[in-house]
Amino acid sequence: MKRFFAILLCKLxxxxxxxxxxxxxxxxxxxLRLCPDILSRVTxxxxxxxxxxxxxxxxxxxxxxxxxxxxxxxxxxxxxxxNQIEGVTALILSHCSLRGKFKRDIxxxxxxxxxxxxxxxxxxxxxxxxxxxxxxxxxxxxHPQWVFDAIRPAIPPEAQLIxxxxxxxxxxxxxxxxxxxxxxxxxxxxSTEDCTAVYDDGKYCPLCGAPMLYDWRHFxxxxxxxxxxxxxxxxxxxxxxxxxxxxxxxxxxDGEDRIGLSFxxxxxxYNILACYTLCRRLGIEGSRIAAEIxxxxxxxxxxxxxxxxxxxxxLLTSKHENSVSxxxxxxxxxxxxxxxxxxxxxDAISRKYFTGDTSWxxxxxxxxxxxxxxxxxxxxxxxxxxxxxxxxxTDIDRSRLTVIPDIPEALDAIRGAGHRRLYAVSCFSDxxxxxxxxxxT
Amino acid sequence: xxxRILHWYHDLLNLYGDYGNPAALVRGxxxxxxxAVIDRLSFHDAPVLSSYDLVFLGxxxxxxxxxxxxxxxxxxxxxRDALAQGVPFLATGNAFELFGRELILPDGSRREGLxxxxxxxxxxxxxxxxxxxxxxxxxEQPCVGFLNRASRxxxxxxxxxxxxxxVGNTExxxxxxxxxxxxxxxxxxxxxxxxxxxxxxxxxxxxxARREQACPPPEDALSGAPPLPEDDALLxxxxxxxxxxxxxxxxxxxxxxx
Lengths: 441, 258
Ligand SMILES: [Zn+2]
Description:
The complex is a heterodimer. Chain A is of the alpha/beta class. Chain A has helices at about 1-20, 25-35, 55-70, 85-95, 115-120, 140, 145-150, 170, 265-280, 285-295, 325-335, 385-390, 405-415, 430-435, and strands spanning about 45-50, 75, 105-110, 125-130, 160-165, 180-185, 210-220, 220-225, 240-245, 250-255, 255-260, 305-310, 310-320, 340-345, 375-380, 400-405, 420-425, 440. Chain A has a nine-stranded mixed sheet, sandwiched between helices. In chain A, strands 16-15-14-17-13-12-18 form a seven-stranded mixed sheet. In chain A, strands 7-8 form a two-stranded antiparallel sheet. Chain B has one domain (about 5-255): Class I glutamine amidotransferase (GATase) domain (Rossmann fold, 3-Layer(aba) Sandwich). In chain B, about 30% of the residues lie in helices and about 25% in strands. In chain B, α1 crosses α5. In chain B, about 45% of the residues are buried. The structure holds zinc ion. Zinc ion binds near residues 205, 207 and 208 of chain A.
């Protein structure tokens, strides 16, 4: 009886919430309060997919959903990205009959990495995808090893693990474990032998602590590694990107499936590969997957184009407190061979919690912007001076920086300067402060 | 002779942009007309500690710090000698926890610390995460920063900071970090000397005072100093403002919480 009311309550609240545009975790929260073990009282489908990791969860899940829906599969997923237990509960209950039976064949879940353990206590995913572990919101999450320790108890022994082979800490989940497959990217022309980032989280073996050796890296600690002492090494991927032609805008997976890139970043490439590998495990053909996600434009769009006066702008949404995400954006800008201005906006470090910590700026490789193509760099937002101080520890000449904390004022200055091209780097928490003052195209 | 700063375990104790601290000291020395270099050393390097003007260690993961502890253990006597000679040590984050008597892990097992100071550390399976405003006798203005640790520190007799807002070495305590002789430890993460330019000045002054005591500077002390950028005054202004912005944000925040 409790189950019946919990499901009913959740459905009702969700319907009301949808009307008022309210968050998607509240109905789940209410249902859990009424019936704390509701998740173990419902009948779930045979296929439950969980996707977790520091970056790329939402994009990966969105692309999997795209493939599943175009293949006519019956499934549900947490579209709004509410990825803790309340959001997952709301997702499940709103697709359940009042008698507690989940009405679709597949349940697809984006899961918060720190709280996955709570979510998956009541039920177990059959497929568990882990995208990567990066330094991400250290002021809230703790460091990657800490997050690793938080994810480990969430992985049920019977689940199939689908892991990024190129991320040592992620592949560590698969050591000594059956029923695990890996995805990875082969060496590319842009791969380097040395670490090009400010810090190196792949310096020491996560298993025994001895120095690691890399044959090559794609970025940061992502690449082909082996321990100098123990047997730990990059496992063989079952699905691999054999060619990543970023400037031409396509990927080749396993030597045959060609996938066009609507956004030409490595980030995107790994998310596509994770999606591809998972869908292959579900028995979908490679060519079919490739066709469905080729040139796919993400709804959760990281990239927004806009106009500011005569200037053509492109916003590369990055995550504050996440240096890998910033580095990817900066690397993308640096790889565009044209003159441009760049604006970096740091105003509120998070939407969800307060912190004044700006130490993460020192983990970002802003030196990537040091090129004659970079006409001017505008630093704006409440933390513009912190950015200016951070830049003073790069080789970038200070005469090329303009520091204006006030955002409208900074945009006026950019408009007045008449740059042809502008790249904006900011976070989901701050980007509307820019987008609301420009004309999106 | 140029100043020498040791950034020890730079490649593992580097969780929060800690490299900014030695970099800030080099800049501070340049502003006093003194050239300086940073030595970046790590496992198995066994540096001659007494040859440095300052030794810096940053924050690592819990496992990382314990690995460093084992590498430090055989060098304990050298560390003690260097401290006895007054070489300033600055250890931020969990690096400073290694210098106490013992560490008790979350599973209850115990690891002997370097036992250079009489405090102990309990590692916890929860993190303490907190913005901080605190004061130290080293300088007049308060310091700001962020504390990010998975531990409680017990029995520090002389803390480096008095916490105005935030948390101390253990909950309910106002003292944070440690100051014993020439050893300075704090859980303020990352480039706290960049965030607090006045604190950086104190450590620069420590270094220069120590040298001048040993050997008064000759007339031409400024020769060989690196040139300062023309707009150094502007840069100093940025540093001051970055500090003020955070101080104001945190002050407002803590007032709202009340
Ligand atoms: Zn190893």
